[in-house]
Design goal:
The structure holds two protein chains of two kinds. Chain A is α+β, with helices and mostly antiparallel strands. Chain A contains 19 helices and 33 strands. The chains are: A alpha+beta, B alpha+beta.
Amino acid sequence: MSIQAKPLHSVGVPMKRKEDPRFIQGKGHYVDDLSFPGMLYLSLVRSTYPHAEIRSIDITEALKVPGVKAVITGKDLEAAGLGWLPTFHGFDKQMVLAIGKVLFQYQEVAAVFAETRAAAVDGAEAVQVDYAPLPVVADPFTSKADKVLLRPDRESKTNRIFHWEVGDKDGAERALASSARRIKQRVWFQRCHPAPLEPCGCVAYFDTMGRLQFHVTSQAPHVYRTALALVTGIAEDKIHVISPDLGGGFGNKVPVYPGYVCAIVGALKIGRPVKWIETRTENLTSTGFARDYHMDVEIGATADGRVTALRVATTADHGAFDAAADPSRYPAGIFGIVTGSYDFPVAYAEVDAFFTNKAPGGIAYRCSFRVTEASYAIERGMDILADELGIDAAELRRKNFIRKDQFPYPSALGFTYDSGDYHKTLDVALERIGYDALLKEQAEKRARGELMGIGLSTFTEVVGAGPSKHFDILGIRMFDSAEIRIHPTGAGIVRTGTKSQGQGHETTWAQIVAEELGLDAGAIMVEEGDTDTAPYGLGTYASRSTPVAGAAITMAARRIREKARKIAAHLLEAGEADVEWTDYRFQVKGVPARSVTMKEVAFAAYTNMAQNEPGLEATYYYDPPNMTYPNGAYVAVVDVDRETGEVKVRRFVAVDDCGTVINPMIVEGQIHGGLTEGFAMAFIQEIQYDAEGNNLSTNFTDYLVPTSLETPHWETAGTVTPSPHHPMGAKGVGESPNVGSPAAFVNAVVDALSPLGVRHIDMPMTRDKVWRAIRDAESTKG
Amino acid sequence: MKVHVKVNGISYEREVEPRALLAYFLREDCGLTGTHVGCDTSSCGCCVVVMDGERAVKSCSMFAVQADGHEILTVEGLADGGRLHALQQGFWDQHGLQCGYCTPGMLLTSYALLRHNATPSEADIREGLAGNLCRCTGYQNIVKAVQQAAGALRESVGAS
């Protein structure tokens, strides 16, 4: 089995993935595949009530279950100083196991350790908890009234977690008031869950040196190490975090969860390895959910469709603890990107977040911290404005796009967009879909009463956090790093602090090194996820791996090249200044016949280095000067069945501009996957709670993941506007399709229904909801 | 209870609890961790294996004792020595996987599908894989992978 790779021109090549041979042969290495002698299993007792006082916990019967070794409760942890766990952005803490009361259904109440998986579950069933139900707050609007105080443990006696704002409040108010036209719409981005197919889990044990060996499903292993050191008091050198193969993450595997802490405590207390693997139900009901933003969007415009102002007021439901995992100084993430691709002279955004009796979270699900919510708000808003003004949705966007010559563009909410050519990207998308012909077809269908919709989304994302002067997690600045070692034979290894969850880093990182050094990408090994070997990094989420770690790899490779130049000069018997790197080799300036390859230099670095320092390796810590701004133009075409409300996505064209493309096959795969998750949110996915706070979406029969049958066929294309500040010009892409597509779907369905007078439908646009919208509109029309 | 199951051509005789699921029997008693578990409701298909050469079964929905006396094929048994099965090659060539967690189930479901239909259309493949969830790929490349494999298997049958 050989990896198809070209030794030269590695970037831009659809190289087959180096990680795949192990996955297709069942040799992947996921956390639940690990087994250690004497390993115990942990099962958690979870609350059946959304809000209740715990009168008592009786573990007597559980301890009698054959195989059960120990049971711990919140009181035990509190006594050990481990009752609470800080949430990642540092504004709140979360109970590890419930202390005194429970705040959401399925909250962790007790931990049972047993010899087998089944015995642990039996033991958990046998724990008796006496609850006294308390009044439930099931939505942020009720929470706002502060009639029931959910978190008396906090200093501020209110359910409001924060008020955050950005922009010119008065200026936006004035501009809106004086605008010839304005629209206002409440849109809700419903509660979703990333639901990677591999649930979260870990194995913890203390080795013979007393060192914590912690194998865990983590997108950010180094941050876990530091967080564990801070929480448990174990010295950081005594903690080894290993994140093996991850079966997807999508943001779900960023936070530290109570089960992890319980596993470590169990391993310490009992002195044996402990494995905790959550069930799907536990995954959906207790680990980081996403979205749940209720957004009031207002846009002002001139009569001919020039936007004059944007104002967005958001009410956010954060659940029982504020575990949103946003960078410390950004409680509402990077929601300020809400001005999107448009040249707004003034804007203002505010977010008010509230506690409720629901699972904690608000994590960045395939999203650069609330960018998905922001993109959805502005792209829905622009369509509503187009409808209000009677201007074609594409035309309105064209009229208001930030122009190519305006980059670097300072947005009204404080971002400096790096590059883009929004007009061109939209043109490619419209051409590809055949926009004019579709408009004609739609007009004919409408005349016959048929419901056909065309939906656009021309979004701008913001990814790649740092810069570290703005972004940190628990105070740790958001840089990233890479270490490259080139071996004597010209093979090598690159290590980073990122962690692939399916994104194909083992291939992409090898291609970057190969491109920069003129080596064979097939012979560059990539290692991630081991805190003992990788340089410190912040991890993989928020589409930051290629923008930050990819840049670190490039810069480390260039450091190696500078060192290699000295050795090349020695080999070529030339002065260093006379040696140039050209066409993937060192040559004496103007004398192509006198050249050496990097492979030859690598050998010499260990065998014939003259006065130079032996070896060929480098480390680089990269602090990005700015974020990157991938963008895209998406077009969805739908047909809606008037009688049943069924929506058929007839076509979907996605044109992405993510700057320089390193592996087009992987980029396309990322786009397919992101579009599918966007499709899921648009049509079928929601974590639902009833008015009493009961979670109604506890498994894959209620929380739906699209199958091969419903998933549309995706048509992809790209434009390339390199990022001017990234050393390779790359911008990141994994999240763009998930960020950009929901609005395209909703805009298409609303467009289909617009002849009936429908102006908005909230996601998920289930058949039932679409049918009701049609029925209500028709009955209103009489 | 004692069960005797032939997995990938090798006989395993093990003492199991009556309630032990086949998925955990394969993973924990046979040490074949390529078969994954992704849900509690038989929805995801990560655990699909092939029984008696042609029937795709969700191993999380069968007790180990129900497999007593049967033959099971898991992802570990697909390749012929060092030679990848046409389906494995197809998934690799067509970028039919990302995180790899659903892949074993996808491969085994496709294996059974192709046993019953050597010339599946795209619709047949999408229908056949409807019991297997993938969160990463959007299925498009998985369909291409199965198409490639179907073509390769037809050719190899034609050549022999």
